[in-house]
Amino acid sequence: MRENIYLTIYRDYADKIQSGQLKPQTKLPSESELMEEYGISRETVRKALNLLSQNGYIQKIKGKGSFVLDVGRLNFPVSGLVSFKELTKTLGKPSRTIVYETELIKPDHYIKQHLQCSETVWKVVRAREIEGERIILDKDYFDPNIVPMLTKEITGDSIYDYLEHELKLKISFAKKEISVEQSIDEDRKYMDLHDYLHVVVVRNYVYLEDATLFQYTESRHRLDKFRFIDFARRGN
């Protein structure tokens, strides 16, 4: 039926994106061009574009238009404690870690509040690059009473591998908070954000087997590249 033409537009472009005919970052025709192509109203065009946006196919950027998103997003498990090194083994894509900072610092009030460590903390700042783009910025803070030494060689490889196999720590569980926030200068400096004004921030409080809090992390993700997955079961 004619009133469902917006679904036709939606399916046309969803199929083109899923098949790879339209590559990530490709700009879609303007609203006026789509109105002319399909012979429909602006309201109908916007309905189709909104549906594409809601289902993760496009990103609408004010004043610039609609751009194709990468539908081959990476699945980031919310419930698990997975290191980047472990995650990249499942990707089959070229990736690397760029270490910007590995140093012992005096924590400010913000870090004291989150890590509950008053004297000094280890601070590690790393970008995660996948297919040539820095899409994650990890800022990790460790209690030096639990983690007495870190080096750039360790932080450039896998901290968890070092903690578990060298220090013999029993990492047990984490509390996670997820939010979408405006990007800050540090994001723009260390990540390839393009025109994205927001990032997904995952705050992790990581505990040992004896419930000792030893790590606080802010993992900042580019909006278009990650989706966060979980498994839930309804039961008694």
TrEMBL record:
CDD domains: WHTH_GntR
Key words of the record: DNA-binding, Transcription, Transcription regulation
SMART domains associated with the record: HTH_GNTR (SM00345), UTRA (SM00866)
Cited Pfam families: GntR, UTRA
PROSITE patterns found in the cross-reference section: HTH_GNTR
This protein's record includes keyword ATP-binding: no
HTH gntR-type domain mapped to chain residues: 3-71
InterPro entries reported for this sequence: Bact_HTH_transcr_reg, Chorismate_lyase_/UTRA_dom_sf, TreR, Tscrpt_reg_HTH_GntR, UTRA, WH-like_DNA-bd_sf, WH_DNA-bd_sf
Protein name as catalogued: Trehalose operon repressor
Species name: Paenibacillus sediminis
